[in-house]
Amino acid sequence: MAKENSLVTFVFRDRIENGWCRMVQLEKLEKILQHNFKNKELLHKALVHSSVNSHADHNYERLEFLGDRVLGVSVASLLYRLFPQEPEGSLSQRFTGLVCKETVAQVGRTLQLGKFMFVADDDIRENENVLCDVCEAVIGAIYIDAGVEGAINFVNVHWRDLIDRRVAPRKDSKTLLQETAHAKNLGQPIYELIGRSGSEHEPVFEIAVRLEGMPEAVGFGHSKKMAEFAAAAKMLEQIS
After folding, report:
1. I need a labelling partner for 86 at 20 to 30 A (CA). Which of 4, 75, 80, 188 fits?
2. What CA–CA distance (Å, rounded) separates 46 from 122?
3. Cβ contact 229:174 at 8 Å
4. What is the DSSP string of 11-30?
């Protein structure tokens, strides 16, 4: 009986200590995020990778789905207010650069999200796809916790420094290829997914782009969009 009681005491103490450590970590992250959660469990869920808990409502995946949409609206609202004289095309170019995986993952690194994640393998913490997803999940959690104004305020704070208001948005390689193809009467670029390799968490897509009278160009990337950009860049090299 004494051994059984000591075991129960150990388990109870372990749960208390783990819960206390988790709360301390979440409070540290709240200071970095500059948002105090009314519902701490939302922030915790936004940090749980499926390798720890595969249940759909106990990891970040559903929050990431929501946060992705909230991020889009928030960035669009920010650009609309910051650049009242810019046409839709320029705003779209800025928007694409600010919501792409690489930029969102960059914000995730700045916020040290990898350090606070709950994962089964530490290598996952620096995975660009995962950092992007967790950052979007945090935005989704803030949206539920504080509403649309809280989410937009979060994006305003952490994305504003990524916008250079003095410089016109740089055109991406797909836009440049489309404009170049039109100017040279080469028709419309056609993109096709021709291969996929890598793991589920770190896929590599292979995209081919074709133009009239030109050999096809192939690009690789960890997302279809990035592979298309790479293929377009190679086609531009061939044209020039």
Report:
1. 188
2. 17
3. yes
4. HHHHHHHHHHHHHHHHHHHH
78: its two tokens: 């920010």
Here the tokens at position 3 are 């051994």
How far from the centroid of its chain's Cα atoms is residue 133's Cα? Answer: 5
pTM above 0.85, yes or no: no
The answer to whether 19 and 44 have CB atoms below 8 angstroms apart is no
Instruction: Return the structure tokens found at 44.
Output: 């915790």
pLDDT by residue for the chain (240 residues), tens digit each? 444 444 334 333 434 345 445 677 888 999 999 999 999 999 999 999 988 766 666 789 999 999 999 999 999 999 999 999 888 888 888 898 899 888 999 999 999 999 999 888 878 888 889 999 999 999 999 999 999 999 999 999 999 888 876 566 667 888 889 999 999 999 999 999 999 998 877 789 999 999 988 999 999 988 888 899 999 999 999 987
- Which of 64, 128, 136, 145 is catalytic? The answer is 136
* 128 in catalytic set: no
Backbone angles phi, psi at 118, to 5 degrees: -105, 110
Catalytic annotation present for 136: yes
- From 64, 68, 172, 206, the catalytic residue: 68
Question: Helix H segments across the chain?
Answer: 2-33, 40-46, 61-82, 88-99, 101-110, 113-116, 128-159, 173-183, 224-239
Q: How far apart are CA 3 and CA 29, in angstroms?
A: 39
Domains of the chain with bracketed CATH: 8-162 (1.10.1520.10), 173-239 (3.30.160.20)
C-beta of residue 234 within 8 angstroms of C-beta of residue 176? no
